[in-house]
Amino acid sequence: MTTEWRRRLVVPAKHTGLVLIGFVMLYPVLWMVVSSLRPGDEIFRSPGLVLDSLQTENYVEGWNALTPSFGTYLVNSAVLVLGCIVGNLVSCSMAAYAFARLQFTGKRWWFGIMLGTIMLPIHVIIVPQYVLFSQMGWVNTFLPLIVPKILATDAFFVFLMVQFIRGLPRELDEAARIDGCGHPRIFLQIVLPLMTPALATTTIFTFIWTWNDFFSQLIYLTDPDMYTVPVALRSFVDSTVATSWGSQFAMSVVSLVPIFLAFLIGQRYLVKGIATTGGK
Amino acid sequence: MSALDELRQLRRGGVQVRKRDNRAAFWFLAPWFAGLVFITVGPVLASFALGFTKYNLIQPPRFIGLDNFARVLSDERLHNALRVTFTYVLVSVPLQLACALGVALLLDRGLRGLPLYRSAFYLPSLLGSSVAIAVLWTQVFGTEGLVNRVLGLFGVEGRGWISDPDTALSTLIVLNVWTFGSPMIIFLAGLRQIPAVYYEAAAIDGASRWSQFWRITMPLLSPILFFNLVLQIIHAFQSFTQAFVVSGGTGGPSDSTMFYTLYLYQQGFSRFDMGYASALAWFLLLIIAAFTAVNFWAAKYWVFYDD
Known about the structure:
The complex is a heterodimer of chains A (280) and B (307). Chain A has helices at 3-36, 42-45, 57-63, 70-101, 107-118, 122-135, 143-150, 155-166, 170-178, 183-194, 196-212, 215-220, 229-238, 245-277.
């Protein structure tokens, strides 16, 4: 069993296996994209990926199937995502700075609680949270979805940033302190600029998770004008008016495009983020 | 270092306190602390209190003692939901991790095109929780869906995978296995930490690939496997979107896709029985905590820590 033998047989076999697995895995998604560009009745008949002609009728039909049209939901989702990203970046980086660089009473205890909340399922807190937010009249606004981010409840990102700040050389802080900087300036002018990779990871994950999140958006957004993409898509699929797979597929593809773009742009940060902290 | 390692270190008591910056810490942590009170821990405690009441959001909560908790014990639909959820978690997570580890092992050690493969296998993890993929699944496993079309090419007659109570849950299990990419990336990062000299030394001693795997790779990878196991079990217990979309919100056919979270949603947000939903939420927390505790306990017997 020489390395020569290995190179000749094992490596090509590995590649064949991997390509096959990848193809089978991604086939349904590719097929959805292709099918969305076919005339409606052909979707059922053809399991292949060959496209005779490019039809956009499904997109036109799906886009206008609900009132308001799909554009509104895309804008709603975009606004929501933007709010969540800003909230997470500001609040999580502040909390992370405190946990990574400051010494305070009960630090270990608070840090333990923070780690514990990473694993707290949303379903456990959703009922009283809903009661609270509905008393405040926040149902059918984005506030119940954005305010928790402003309050650093995505502990996963706090942990990710703590890890990152710990890796930065302390000498920089100490030099700044000798020059008379307080903690706000050390945070803003030294730590924050150095932690852009962690901030990028947070941005991309927040984008994807918020864009995909269905449970809390389903609960808090019941007015069609406030629907986000996942809620609208589900209501479109459920409505008896829409029975054609073509337009359902078309709008599904539209809803996945931003995720795909985020994936293309942010791959590097995603892989790093998961490898160090185990996100989804 | 993962969150779990952190917890282990905290338990041992690693950090030494020097000079304190309490005032600065207070301001930096103010948003997080408010979140703790109003968004996370506060509601957990509040849901415990609501569990003892009958509450429909309109009339004020009425204290009914242990009724909701007694109902947990006698509610047959809930017991079915537990069966469905346990089956889902206990079947899909091991399968998912086996795929993740298998593919990670194939990809390890300088295979050409690694970044491309890694991206291709990871993509489903990002898409998997979306409504769009659930819509796709509804079609693919439908009576006239892609799976049956492909089976038809081989002359095999399919069935309505999603409309049949015997197979509906399996389609969701397949969907969870499909998202093996994120644990795979964690495995890959772990595999890269294992020094190549260990394998070289073992090869010189004449160890087969098989025994290298069991005596070097598995022990050194076991903390990573443990981490993935804990995380994916917690994730799987919280699955909601896919079952909701595939069953049109009902958990059907015949409650065969009635996940615990879906049942909780129906009780709380379709029937507005907030008291019972709170009791259910607490029960879910206890179940997840129990699973995690058992995991940590069992880890003593199979997870190998180098330090």
